[in-house]
Amino acid sequence: MTATANGAPPSVPAFLHPFARPAAESSSFVRIVGGKGARVWDDQGNTYIDAMASLWYCAVGHGRPEMAEAIARQAGTLGGYQCFDRFTNEPADALAERIASIAPEPGSRVFFTAGGSEAVDTALKLVRLAHVLRGDPGRTIVISRAPSYHGSAYGSTALTGLPPNQLGFGPGVPDVVQVPKDDLGAVRAIFEQHAGRVAAVFAEPIIGAAGVYPPQPGYLQELRRLCDEHGACLVLDEVITGFGRLGQWFAGQFYGVRADLTTFAKAVTSGYIPLGGVIVAPSVHEVLAADPAFILRHGFTYSGHPTACAAGLACLDIIERESLLSRPSVIGNALRPGLEALVSDGVVASFRGEMGVWAVELHPGQDVAAARDRLLDAGIVVRPIPPATIAMCPPFVIGADELDQILAALRSALA
Ligand SMILES: Cc1ncc(COP(=O)(O)O)c(C=O)c1O
């Protein structure tokens, strides 16, 4: 076998794909070339209903001229510029103001990153730092849940409750303790075992990429109460739920739970440009600003990137102008009865979800990757989550006919 110019065997692409087999051959990839609304198409002429909004992010739908125009306008004025120290720019200031104005906690401030993993790593550092600045440096322990998905950077990998994602990468970030989801007794036990040492609890309001598990009623509220009782921060990881997935700007509002830090990414720009961040409530940012001489030694080259922030402003404009926060309940009302019927007819074992995010659980013995492939052949993009979950998180703009087609394809492909 002769190597290509870059040394790779000829049958594999130069692009080493994320969450994929490095040995996968070039011919096995689906090359998406365009999209409009809830549909995308590939270079072979196949059109798909994008039941995953790409990767949980394309809330406003594909192919939006308003997004392209806003991005081109900003790129033509000031494509990129850094925000370290004394520098700022108009789109970053405006987007921070805009997010603060819709944030669950009045008086919040916004830290920008380039994506969700950086947002989670930022939150992990900020909670520990806030305790140090409060004069309580022993609070380093962070509680997260299993299953959960918080990202692929070093801190977010440590917080993620999916053991295979940590395998082989060496020692993780210390002082991260995991408890089973929905097990408040386990959370209480950690607080008691490490009294005065817990910095924060990290939780996705709805566990997303680890399987789509809505919380048990009252669970998040009790997490909040336990954090208050024990002097710890609550971090809601809203990378999937932020900007409308549950029909309100944030899931914290949907569930009526206050967060000290809220991480976001994905739908803030609907993915047209990568952007993420952390909404920092006064409980944390007031501590950071208490000493006027203190310097926050944390940030990324692209924190406050003007073109990404212009995309964020344009995306939030679309969500507001088209009242897209009303769509997740429409999606949920359309999918729920169809999924119920799939269960009662024995096509799938169970389903779960809320508003704009859903999953079906396959019967034992059914292979999720094979099911995903059959759905692709039927023109539907879903996300397989081993061992047995098929996730769906469609764009807010998906139509009733397209939701019907998803249900029909699930029935035929999974029967
Ligand atoms: C809840 C949650 N947190 C963090 C992340 C990581 O975000 P990113 O892939 O943008 O780094 C994800 C990605 O799916 C996520 O779902």
Integer average pLDDT: 97
CATH overall fold name of the largest domain: Aspartate Aminotransferase, domain 2
Secondary-structure element series = EEEHHHEHEHEHEHEHEEHHHEEHEEEH
CATH class of the largest domain: Alpha Beta
The helix-and-strand class reads alpha/beta
Number of DSSP helices?
A: 13
Helical content stands at 25-40%
Please count the beta strands (DSSP E, at least 2 residues each).
15
Residue ranges: pLDDT <50 for 5 or more in a row?
Answer: none
Strand content: 15-25%
Q: Biggest sheet, strands in spatial order?
A: 4-10-9-8-7-5-6
Tally of separate domains: 2
Which ligands appear in the coordinates? pyridoxal-5'-phosphate
- What Rg is obtained from the alpha carbons, in whole angstroms? 22 Å
Global geometry? globular
What is the oligomer described by this structure?
single chain
For the terminal residues, how far apart are their CA atoms?
Answer: 42 Å
Note the topology:
Blueprint: E1 32-36, E2 39-42, E3 47-50, H1 53-56, H2 65-78, H3 90-102, E4 109-113, H4 116-133, E5 141-146, H5 154-159, E6 176-180, H6 184-193, E7 198-203, H7 219-230, E8 233-237, H8 251-255, E9 261-264, E10 276-280, H9 282-288, H10 306-321, H11 327-344, E11 350-354, E12 357-361, H12 368-377, E13 380-381, E14 383-385, E15 389-392, H13 400-414
Helix pairs in contact: 2-10, 3-10, 4-9, 6-7, 11-13
The structure holds pyridoxal-5'-phosphate (PLP).
Residues 56, 115-117, 120, 149-151, 156, 204, 208-209, 237, 239-240, 265, 276 line the site of pyridoxal-5'-phosphate.
